[in-house]
Amino acid sequence: MRLRLQVRTAADRLPWAEVLRPGRGLCYELLAHGAPALGAQLHEKGWGPYGMVPFGYGAPVFPTAPRRRGVYAAGGPGVLELGSPLLAVVEAWASALAGRSLLDWGGVALRVERVEPVEPPAFASGWARLRTATPVVLKGSGRDENGVRTTRQAWLLPGEPEFDVYFAQNLRRKAETLGVDPEVSLERITWVGAKRSFAVGEGLKVGAPVEVELRGAPETLQALWSWGLGQANAAGFGWVVA
Fold first, then answer.
1. Cα(59)–Cα(241) distance, rounded to whole angstroms?
2. Cα(101)–Cα(170) distance, rounded to whole angstroms?
3. Is the dihedral of CA 19, 25, 26, 31 positive or negative?
4. Over the stretch 110-144, which tens digit does the pLDDT of each residue have?
5. I want to staple 140 with a disulfide (CB 3.0 to 4.6 A). Which of 123, 162, 182, 203 is the partner?
6. DSSP structure class, residue 225
7. pLDDT single digits (tens) 152-172
8. Diameter of the chain by CA atoms?
9. Are 207 and 230 in contact (CB under 8 A)?
């Protein structure tokens, strides 16, 4: 499930360093108010056998803001989405947002005008085409063709040899984390966007937005839609377009 926040700002841009970075802190801040024990568990230990953090979010989007080259345009009405396959997380966010009129997004004030829940698609056929609005990031083995490790910052891009394997592994781990059917597969990648990097903490993560076709149990596909694709969803990466 997701929460869709209708927001408004007088700012005319978001600094590139703050396009995604503020969301993780906001999600934990809301959990600290709405469900402090759950928030502490996710922050300290994660969830399930792999210690994953099952929530994600997208960057604020301002459809009517004038576009300018090299600038992340803001201004006027916008939309910010948060999501999690754990209903308790979404309920805690909703509780914390009740009556709250202002959010700080990396120094940019966002006035909250409306908060509404959004249910995932049914995916009744067991098939889904999902496209991300933010880059999908995955780390590979960092080894060359001879099996020698050459780097620990082995960010994978779609089309590289290890990408499909690590992507599919991430899908299964998410399903196992949530206790839903782990028989989920990547059928094919149908679109790849431009390579991008965004600031997270003290560093950068590199990836590309993608559109993929997946096959699996409807509940598993719904969970992935609510959570995101790839790694670092709790930092805003791999957010699926609604």
1. 11
2. 36
3. positive
4. 999 999 999 999 999 999 999 999 999 999 875 65
5. 162
6. H
7. 568 999 999 899 999 999 999
8. 58
9. yes
